Amino acid sequence: MNKRKYFPMLAACVCSLCLRPLQVLAAETETYRLIQLYQEYEERFAAIETTADIEAQGYTRFEEQCFAVELESFGGREVNFIPIMDDTYHRMAVLIADGRGDVLYKTDQLEANYKWLGKLEQPNTGIASVSFQDLDGNGMKDIVLIVTCENDSGDYMGRPYKVGDVLFGREGGFYRDWRISDKINRFSMNKSIRFITAYVRDGNSTEILYTASTLDELLEKGFQIFEEQSYYREFEKQGRLLVAPGYLRMGDYSVFMIYLVNEQGNIVWSFQPMGDYDNIYALKGMACKDLDGDGMKDILVLAAYSYEGPEEQLMVDTKCRIYYQRADGFEEDTEFEEAYLCTDKDKVSELVDRVRAYWGWTKEE
Q: Checking DSSP bridges between strand 267-271 and strand 253-261, what pairing results, if any?
């Protein structure tokens, strides 16, 4: 046997055998550490027995969203609704306390605490809206809650978003149906209290907008196409497709979506330009042109969207959304939208020139 070849190979095997247990040990140590941290967090939360314990256990209350409310779950008497957040891990919780400050009910089992799976730390930043109403018809008020979140990494870094939840009233407390909470957020019905109410109480849903595989399915469910902005275009990497912008009515809202449909009627791509807005106020125009100079047609959408202001007044914003064509589909713009603030005076043709100039085009090109 060639010892020069044998001994290095043996040494490598020994190192490999030694290294693997160390890696496993490190993983087990990290898991144990996380378990300890979670137990410490649970102990702090369990120790909140009165409102005087909130700050002492490392939590901050959202004073502007604290309310005195009569809840049938506690015999119809007036109690205090108090949303709080853990200062260390930014996990949200809800407390119900009596007039003396004793906690009658508390929960941190909220959808907003499961945005980063497997982590104690969560992206919660505050409370957007709270409402008390009977959604399931059992005669007890439920709690409708919308939490604001913001990721510090990933695709949506620095872009606030909402997470909706419903705590259903029952004798002595509340419970959460995770299936309902999942659909509220998965299908973007978390924009406002009225959106959640329309789904949970009235049975309306935007689910078809995200699950339909053909244009006919959408039309059968009431999807309305903006015919003046719908046309076929030849996309270099996607082929000949129908651009089909339209909306679905849900309660008081019109939910705006754009679909690209092939000649067989199948949906091959979809866009949600509305973001966190409640309603499309007006579609001002669209353009399917090369905007970034790569030789492929992109999609620009100019529309006005409405939402409810802090005093329940109607607010309207004009937004430009851009989707760049890529080899494997489309990519939403994150640069031009931050660099240029749209107004209600903007026009599609002018925005096309602005976007092209942003990417270094001259008008002659």
A: antiparallel
pLDDT tens digits for range 282-305: 999 999 999 999 999 999 999 999
3-state secondary structure of 11: helix
pLDDT for the residue numbered 251: 80
Rounded Cα distance between 23 and 16, Å, is 11
What pTM does this model have? 0.82
DSSP label at 112?
G
3-state secondary structure of 231: strand
Residue 5 CA, chain-centre distance (Å), reads 58
Is 166 in contact with 181 (CB distance < 8 Å)?
yes
CA–CA distances in Å: residue 183 to residues 6, 111, 162, 190: 60, 11, 13, 9
Question: What DSSP letter does each residue of 37-87 carry, written as one string?
Answer: HHHHHHHHHHT--BTTHHHHTTEEE-GGG-EEEE-GGGTT-EEEEEEEEET
CA separation (Å) from 68 to 81, 329, 332?
6, 50, 43
> pLDDT tens across 245-258, in order?
999 998 889 999 99
Residue 269 to residue 279: CA distance in whole angstroms: 21
Model pLDDT for residues 112-165, shown as the tens digit of each residue: 999 998 899 999 999 999 999 999 999 999 999 999 999 988 767 778 899 999
The DSSP bridge pattern shows strands 67-70 and 78-86 to be antiparallel
Which residues neighbour 186 within 8 Å (Cβ) at sequence distance 6 or greater? 210
Report how far residue 102's alpha carbon sits from residue 99's, in angstroms, rounded to the nearest whole number. Answer: 7
CB 127 within 8 A of CB 145: yes
